């Protein structure tokens, strides 16, 4: 029991699923208590050892969910109106399954892989909706288009677009006047 505890006591909790870690931690604590008890019977030591070994063997690593998370994000970016209702329903069901697995802390690697497979097949099974969606209002403003096509003549006196150039000129002119006034006042004070 002592040597097995020494081997497993430094295992990192965050690498294992919470459900399997809880059982392991309880068995490890019991094993340490039995080990610390000088009056422990051999049967208690054997039971603690057996329970600790079982709990250790039942530990499950937290599966990597990065690929599943990427698939979920890509799927959420799809637009339902672009696909047929039946294939979109299949995708929606697969997405719900994948999100449930993603949020389950105790999900096994098999469940993660299965959710990835089901979601991938649902995305691949999407059928493009051939019914065009007509907007209720035109997407292009014709007045802008006609203004662009109108040529500018050399004799045209139409005011140009305000770009803010005049405001900078006024600002620099004001700063220059203030500088000159300050210099004149400074010169008068010195005299």
From TrEMBL:
Domain of life: Bacteria
Pfam family, one: FIVAR
Protein name: FIVAR domain-containing protein
